[in-house]
Amino acid sequence: MTVLKTSLRNFFAHKGRMALSAIAVLLSVAFVCGTLVFTDTMNTTFDKLFAATSTDVTVSAKGASDTGETTSDNGKPPVMPASVLDEVRKTQGVKSAEGTVFSTTVTVVDAEKNNLSPKSGAPTIVGSWNGNDARTMKVTSGAAPKGSDQVMVDADTADKHDLKLGDEIGVISAVGTHTAKISGIATFTVTNPGAAIFYLDTKTAQETLVGKTGVYTNVNVIAASGVSDAQLKKNVVAEIGGGYKVQTAKETADANQKDVEGFLSVMKYAMLGFAGVAFLVGIFLIINTFSMLVAQRTREIGLMRAIGSSRRQVNRSVLTEALLLGVFGSVLGVGAGVGIAVGLMKFMGSIGMHLSTDDLTVAWTTPVAGLALGVVVTVLAAYLPARRAGKISPMAALRDAGAPSDAKAGRIRALVGLLLTGAGVGSLFAAAAADKATDGSLWLGLGVVLSLIGFVVIGPLLAGGLVRVLGAVLLRVFGPVGRMAERNALRNPRRTGATGAALMIGLALVACLSVVGSSMVASATDQLDKTVGTDFIIQSDSGQKVTPQAVQAVKSTPGLARVTEYRHAQAAFTTPDGQTPLKDAAITAADPTYATDLRTETVAGKLADAYLPDSMSVHEEFAKDHGIHLGSKVTVDFHDGTTAKLTVRAITSSDVVIDQGAMYTSIATLAKYVPADKMPLDQLVFASAKDGQEATAYKALKSALHDYPQYTVRDQTDYKQALKDQIGQLLNMIYGLLALAIIVAILGVVNTLALSVVERTREIGLMRAIGLSRRQLRRMIRLESVVIALFGALLGLGLGMGWGATAQKLLALQGLNILEIPWGTITAVFIGSAFVGLFAALVPAFRAGRMNVLNAIATE
């Protein structure tokens, strides 16, 4: 009880000094809890949606996915004859059954040809209005579609694009473009996470999406009273046979949920990973806080020891304060986490993913996890300072000798740090020298961990050298004030090392990712320059295939010298040795001009010969593994066609980036073995202008594809910029998440300076008494903060560039051969660190300047 009272008294006596540490705990816990609440809410939203939209039993056409998504290589949904509906209706235990048609491989445009598809990545669904949809949607304006000239749209999409009754829209599918006017608007009775949904009548949907009537993509079945879904499924399968996909409501909902779980898991664990980085940074802040508090209470601890307190009691007293800090920060963090989750939901709403606060889910495990993490991390971080406090002897404390200085421990620490750093560097060298990316990645991970820990442990030793260098370069120009700032930073190398290490971690990740991103862009750009011989690339950024109508629009564009189609077909490959190593792989079919559009290096033969009738190419590794040479016969069993024996006419190098590992054949050969109605659509289309007509052809292509806004026309400059933008957007998102760790590191600098000012109160008073002005005092503290921040930046940027350079060596095994250091970014981060130091010193410097000189001198 005495220990608890002492801890409570000390905690509240130093509540101002504990505040920043509490904020660090709060931010880290809030990020963890916010992530968990946000992902749990998304799971709840999708669970409700899938449960509401699943019928008792669903019959799908052969080839449909478990999720019901109707993507296919030819752009049309897989269908079954209408006779299946009649058979299902006759099945025992069926109350009702209804045939439907829908597709997700469509684009919908308004009258001005603006794309109405969601930009959030959610699907665009066009289908027939049916009874199952009527259970989850209510027509709130107008009426359901009746006739080919009518279409109904969901209310969210109508609001987003300002659509109203009577507006004309166009549905673009592999069949063609169908136009209709909005006859009705339907509102979801459950939360729609962001899909754009359009309804046609059944006949029109069949003609628009499939190109013929008398077919369905699904049959929705409702069970009679007393019949379970499992029994109904069994009865339906017995009636219609095994040529169809039959699923219960639970199976359909589970398949849909599994489909989104991958995305949610990646998001969840990525965000938790960044929260872990913030926790790691916060550990340094807490260690520094308690180390300085223990040092400032040396005499108090000595008195406690003198009147009978044991080492264990002193230790327990400090840990109890840490426990209070952890509980306080974690409780606030849990509450803030719910706020962060709501904020994330609002942000997702702004980019098109709708999440309702009605579905806000706070599982009991979330606050428990937040509290446990916050408390455990805080107590563990305070353990070393607490242990150090327990070692203070009563007489040394009463003489104000401070915490014991253990030179031997310092030497051991330096030795351990050097060994860890050396092991980390050795692992990074092993990663760089690896022959396989899988082996190298293991060494890279080990090297990152060991070098990071090594730099943290060896930080005090590095502080002594780097701070002196920084002082000589930056601080000496400020005269005596600069020299005092340098000495203050060197006064306690362990403290400076821990404070700088907190900033080092976040900046090391920033530098590493910057190097990797820049190297990827530079390597891909170099590959484009060397290998791509076409002027224009036409493709969909959302991954949709190019419809025949769009291809024809490209071919009809004036000023083009050639147009090359490029598509993939799924097949099984049997090698001459009788093995079938690839049972579901893609073969790339293109026009013969692709050999000119892509200057792929070959190790045997010419790529142009692979486009001869009944010919193909294989890549180098595949050829070596299966003893394939020029003239070998490979049996190719096309999934949507028949079996062909193709002659290998070329073996391509595996050391490429574009189309790495591709096997080529001609579209004419593919058409020989795959029926016309099963032929896959083009993945993209290449076009080259006639000499001197590049600019004219570029404008003409854009004009020709105006009616197809789902496709983008890019020249090589555009393509390179798009690649750079994609990587840049990803890096910016990661930098945004790392900002939490950097904020916590800034709090660490603020806290270190604030406690340092308190620790040096008497010294500051003496300096003021002998003539140091308030302005000089504030400048001294600001310069001390700047040099600590730059010390952390030097460590972080150096370490991160080393990690990035090693990662690039692994990328080189995949053909990304160029290492590029983004010096602009590195320089900006280094300069920004100086401003971080200035910002962190504002409050401590202001408080120091306001000290009363006489009171400061009288302080013990």
TrEMBL record:
The keyword S-adenosyl-L-methionine is assigned to this record: no
Occurrences of domain ABC3 transporter permease C-terminal (ranges): 274-394, 737-852
Keyword Iron-sulfur among record annotations: no
Principal location: membrane
Membrane topology, as annotated: Multi-pass membrane protein
Locations listed in the record: Cell membrane
Record-annotated MacB-like periplasmic core domain positions: 19-236, 499-699
Annotated keywords: Cell membrane, Membrane, Transmembrane, Transmembrane helix
PANTHER family documented for this protein: ABC TRANSPORTER PERMEASE YTRF, MEMBRANE COMPONENT OF TRANSPORTER-RELATED
Family, as annotated: Belongs to the ABC-4 integral membrane protein family.
Protein name, UniProt field: ABC transporter permease
Source organism (scientific name): Streptomyces yaanensis
